[in-house]
Structure formats: C-alpha cells, structure tokens
Amino acid sequence: MDFLTITYLIYSFISFYFLFLFILIYTQNKNKLFSYPLPKKDYSLSIVVPCYNECKSIGETIKAILESDYKNIEKIIVVDDCSTDNSYEIIKKFAEKYPKVIALQTPKNTGKAGGAKNYGAKFVTTELIGFVDADSYPDKNAISKMIGFFDDEKIGAMTSLILVKNRNKLIEKLQAIEYKIIAFSRKLLSFIGSVYVTPGPLAIYRKNAFEEIGGFDEKNLTEDIEITWNFVDKGYQIGMSLLSQVYTVAPDNFKKWFKQRIRWNVGGLQTINKYKKSFFKKGMLGQFILPFFVLSWILAIFGLGIIIYTSIRTLIIQFLSTKYSIQAQTTILSLRDINLSPNILIFLGIILLFLNISITAISLIYSKEKDFKKHGFTNIFLYMFFYLLTYPIILIASSYKYLKGKNSW
C-alpha cells in the first residue's frame, strides 16, 4: 500500500469519525434543538457594546438592544475605543435620550475589541454581563431566550445563532450559508459540552465567572475564542440558544473577508499555543475541543495537499503518456485499458461527500429565517465545491503569519 493511499485512508477515518459523531448527536437531540428553559428568577443584566469607527451602524445596534423584550437590562454600556469618526457623538446622543445607555470612551485606543470590552466590564455590577458588537443586531427575543440557561450553575456563558444581515454580493451570500452551518454545529457541540467560541455579535456571561477568569485576553486576536476556552478550562459549561438570532454585517469584498479570516485563524493559533498543556488532559477542553480544533486544521490542509498532489500527478502522467505515444506512434488509450472495477478510495470519497451534503442540508433547514429568501442551489453548490476549498489556503497563510510573529489586528 503506497503512502498516498495510507494518508487518504487515515484522512477518511478521521473525517468519518467527526461526521458520524455530529450525525449521532443530531439524532439523539433533534427534539431539543429549539428548547430553552424559562428563567426561575429575574437576572440583572448589563450589555457592553465595544465600538470603533462604527458610525454607520452603532445607532441601529443600540436601538436593537433597547427594543429587547428582556426587561431586566439595567445598563447598555457603549464603549468608544477613541474612534476617528463621529461614533462617540452618536453614542452620547443616545445616552442623553435614554437613561439606560451609558456613553464611555477609553483613555486611549486599545487597538483590539478585548480592550474596549474589558474597559466597559469595569462599570458592570449586574449578575450577568452581555456583549454585542457595534455592527450586530439582536432580535427582540434573542436575549430573553438565553437567560433561563443560567439557572444551571454550571453554565458560565451563552452564545447565540449568528446570521448575516447583508446579502447582496456573492461573497455575502456564501457567508450567509457558512454562518448557518457553523451555528448549527455549535448547537450540536453544546450537547456534549464542547462549544469552543462565544462570538462577539451576542454573548452573555455569568459576571462572577467572568471576573474569576480575568475577563478577555487583550493580546489575543480572537478574544471570544480564548475566553470560551478559559471558561471550559475552569470547569464551566457553555450553552447555545438556537432561537436567539442576531444579525451581523459580514465582509462585503474579498479583501476584507480574507483579512478577517486570517485574524480569526491567527487568534486560533494563539489560543492553541496558550492552552497546549491541556492537550489530552482534564475535561472537555483537553479531551475534545483542542484535538477537534487541531485535527480540523490538519484535515483541511491535508485535504488540499491530496487534491494538489493527485492533480499534478495526473497531469504529469497524462503529459508523459501523450508525449510517449506520439513519439512511438501508439494509441494513448485502448478499450482493455479501461477499468470499471470499484475503487474503495473513490467509494469513500463519495460517502464523505454525501454526508457533508446531508449535514449542510440539515443545518440550513434548522436555521430558517423570516425576512430572507432561501439559499439558491447555485450558491450552495459554489459554497461546497469552491468556497470551502479556500479554507486550507487561509490556514496555511495564517500559520505563516503566526510563525512570523505578525499578530496584529
């Protein structure tokens, strides 16, 4: 058995393991996907909104939080990180009009979302602390359907269903599909205590637990990943409410999208390096989240490597065969050269493709929306067979940037 075949079989085994794991979790918990507990007490809550040069969206974000049907939001603390536009002026106008809104500005620009978040957290005295990005808009009932999970004292944080608001360009439409699949997989992971990120568009934390772990790591480019791993490392569980929808503005061109994804993955590498000593050790962080994170990267990169290798190898063989045939004046292909016998590697590839399509379909079905049309077949096809192929390239570029020490925002 040659090296390529062995590599492909190992790749297939790991892929099947994770795919079947997700399918098993889904079949066992499909009746609980949209369930959420009603809170047994009225938890006091403050929302912190970090803002930097978001004059176009910050007003609508504040309005969306003010319109929440959760009545125990005591403060909406909007932290301007020394914007160079008129964001702070807009925030102050809302603070003058609404007593709940508190306008703050950092003494100097922190340069990262974690800095503005930590600054705002200093002014929070409520039982729960939530964070909403300045370009994100929670639905009216999004927060109220997250609160009841905190009746379980093991829950340290809650995350939500994040959806793309802008969907005019192709890159935006593909991200809309991607966000739904990520959110659905995150909900499945919540059933086994393995949520690995509480994204910025809407997340709520238990305040005493937030203080226990020291808040956000301001050096990390993905402070929302790092803080989640910190919670899990301290023994807390992370919940996810699939009914808590929040819309966020996604990058609208390739350059912005690529820059964002590089930042996400460099931050992921920072987090892996910080918690590497937990690998295969205590709790779900070491026994599942870290291995899952690392193996996902390895699968993506090896998958691209296999595609590139087999493509180049096939082209070289075809070129040499054609050249030799022309020189020798022989046929390139005869009927007896055609082999119609089944190939186990092709069979495994077809099964993997079918399972991936199935999970994609299920994810989209369980992430229905009122205000947007269904995703067309063309967009889904482009997402699965072209968009996903960019992941390994981004991972390689991110690894290079991380190794070079270029960990700037």
Report what the structure shows.
The protein has a domain at 43-286: Spore Coat Polysaccharide Biosynthesis Protein SpsA, Chain A. Helices cover 51% and strands 13% of the residues. The protein has 13 helices and eight strands. The protein has an eight-stranded mixed beta sheet with strand order 3-2-1-4-7-6-8-5, sandwiched between helices.
Order of helices and strands: HEHEHEHEEHEHEHHEHHHHH
Distance between the termini: 46 Å
The first-level CATH class name of the domain at 43-286: Alpha Beta
From the 3D structure, determine the CATH topology of the domain at 43-286.
Spore Coat Polysaccharide Biosynthesis Protein SpsA, Chain A
The overall average pLDDT, rounded, is 89
The helix-and-strand class reads: alpha/beta
The low-pLDDT segments are: 338-342
Helix content: 40-55%
Topology:
Elements lengths: L2 H27 L15 E7 L6 H9 L6 E8 L6 H11 L3 E5 L7 H9 L6 E4 L4 E3 L5 H4 L7 E10 L5 H21 L12 E4 H6 L10 H11 L3 E12 L5 H21 L8 H46 L15 H22 L11 H9 L4 H14 L6
Parallel strand pairs: 1-2, 1-4, 2-3, 6-8
Antiparallel strand pairs: 4-7, 5-8, 6-7
Helix pairs in contact: 1-10, 1-11, 6-11, 6-12, 9-13, 10-13
Concise summary:
The protein contains 13 helices and eight strands.
